[in-house]
Amino acid sequence: MFHTIIIAGNIGRDPEMRYTPSGVPVTSFSVASSRQYSNTQGQTVKETIWFRVTCWSKLAEYANNYLKKGNKVLIEGRLVPDPNTGGPRVWTRNDGTASASFEVNASTIRSLTTRSESENAGNASGGVPEYSDSEIDEDEIPF
To answer: Once rounded to an integer, what is the mean pLDDT over residues 47-56?
Structure first.
């Protein structure tokens, strides 16, 4: 059995790369996926879900080199449950409201930012092809 999640959204912060003790690259970044709809009273409701994305090895190097805050991406991967609850990581914000963090191990990343959008934003990551990495050694996870 296995599962796959596909997320389309905007990168919320620049990717950060680090290395496991054995030297395997690991890159993390956040992706916001938003939607807007009208409720039964006709009011517009805006909803944003944040995902923490982790990628490994060559996919980690790709993400670190080509992705930037604000880029549109499509991520394919698997959800990583909280070991304590078996679901998303639940936490309380500073203002006292409840929040959840959905964590994803990426297996494929596709840039959806066009070259013209990236040139207007002042970075050179647009038009980057997708990259897939199916060789993730989970014994190398540093956390």
So the answer is: 93
CA 114/CA 7 separation, integer angstroms: 18
Classify the C-alpha dihedral 119-18-57-134 as positive or negative. negative
Report the C-alpha gap between 135 and 102 in whole angstroms. Answer: 22
**DSSP string covering 60-81:** HHHHHHH--TT-EEEEEEEEE-
d(CA 112, CA 10): 9
C-beta separation of 124 from 101 below 8 A? no
32 residue type, one letter: A
Which amino acid appears at position 8 of this protein? A
Q: How many domains does the chain have?
A: 1
Q: Find out whether 37 and 45 touch, Cβ atoms under 8 Å.
A: yes
* DSSP states along 93-106: -TTS-EEEEEEEEE
pTM of the model as a whole: 0.75
Domain CATH for 91: 2.40.50.140
